[in-house]
Amino acid sequence: MQIAFVLYDGFTALDLVSAYEVIASWPEAENRFLATEMRPHHADNGLIVSPTDTPDSLPRPDVIVIPGSSRPLGPLENQALLAWIRAAAPHAQWCTSVCTGSSLYAAAGVLGSHPVTTHWAFREVLAGMGATVSTARVVIDPPFASGAGVSAGIDMALTLTARIYGEATARMIQLAMEYDPQPPFDAGSPEKAGPQVVGEVLNLFAAALQPN
Amino acid sequence: MQIAFVLYDGFTALDLVSAYEVIASWPEAENRFLATEMRPHHADNGLIVSPTDTPDSLPRPDVIVIPGSSRPLGPLENQALLAWIRAAAPHAQWCTSVCTGSSLYAAAGVLGSHPVTTHWAFREVLAGMGATVSTARVVIDPPFASGAGVSAGIDMALTLTARIYGEATARMIQLAMEYDPQPPFDAGSPEKAGPQVVGEVLNLFAAALQPN
After folding, report:
1. Which CATH number do you get for residue B132?
2. pTM, whole model, 2 decimals?
3. Is residue A204 part of a domain?
4. CB–CB of B120/A178 below 8 Å?
C-alpha cells in the first residue's frame, strides 16, 4: 500500500501529521512524501520537511494525503502539483485530505460531485469552486475521505482505518497514540467558541483568503 | 519568545507537531528546530524533518519542546543532546515534553522531583529512571509541562497557552485548528480500550522497550 503524503510550501504541519501518524501506521504502509520539487519545504509555522519523491517517481500511489494551509490560495496555483493530482487521483484507492487540502482536488478537477469537508472558515471559498461542501468533521465518500480543519485529520484517518482494516486495527492505533482527547476548553467549533472568538480567527485568516 | 523544538532520529512526528501547531502560533513565538547535527532527521514513520539550529547556535531558548519516540531508549543514549538539555533547561521558562520525551529531562538529570507524565506504556520505565510519574494526560509543574502519549501534545500545549497568554488566546488557537475532537472509537486509554487491545499494543512496543 503506497501512500503519498503531499508537501508544498506553506502547508500546515498538523494537517499532514495528524493523518500521517495514523495512516503511516497501517499494516502494509509504504510511506512516501511527494513534492513537485526535490527540496525541503517549509510549513506555514516553520517546520522544514523534505520529500522522498516527485511526480516522476510516484505516478500512481494507492493513497493520496493532501494537507491544507493557513494561506490556502497558494497551492491552488501550483500547476505541477495539480497536474500530478489530476493524473494520480483517478487510479488511487483513496484520495484523502485534511483542512483546505480538499480544495486541491477541486482545483485539479477530479472531485466531481463527491461531498468533502474542509476548515470551517474555508467552506464558502470551496463551495465557490464548485465543490459539494459538507460541514461534517469527517466525510467518507469513496474514493474521497476528507477531514475538517487541522486536528480533524486524526478523526478522518481513524475512521478510514476502520473502513479498510477493521475496527480492531483502528482501536489499536488509537490506543498506541493515546488519542483520548481532553481539550482544556470547549472552543473547537464556531458554534462552541462563540461570535467573539470566531471574529478574531476570521480576522487572522482574512488576508490569507484575499485573492492576489 | 524563542522556542526550541527538539529533533532526533526516530522521534514520533505527532509528538512534536501536536505541541508545535499550538506553541508555534503563540503571539511572540520565534520557532527554531534543534538537533545535535545539522542534517535531516527521520521520524519513526519516515517523515524527514530538518533542524535550523544546533546546540551552539541555540544555547538558551525560552521554551524547550521534546517529543517522544516509539523506540524511546534510543535518544537516551544521545549524549550531545542530553548535554544540551542539561545546560539549557535551567535557564528555560518552560521545559515541555510529549509522550516519552519527559524521559530525556530525567536522563539529563534536570527533572528533580517535578512530576511529569508520559505514554501509558512507558510509565514504569520512566519511574525506574527515578522520575515522579503522573498518570494524568497533562501535568503542569513549572518549569515542566508534560503531555501523555502522542496526541496529548495538543491538550498540553493548549493548557500551557492559557497559563501564559490567557484563556482567550488558547480558545482562539483551538478554534483556528478546529480542535473539536470526535474520535470514532473510545479506545484512547488502556482503561477504555480493554485488555485485548492493550495486550496488542504492548506486544508492538515490547521489542522497543528492551535494553540493548
Report:
1. 3.40.50.880
2. 0.96
3. no
4. yes
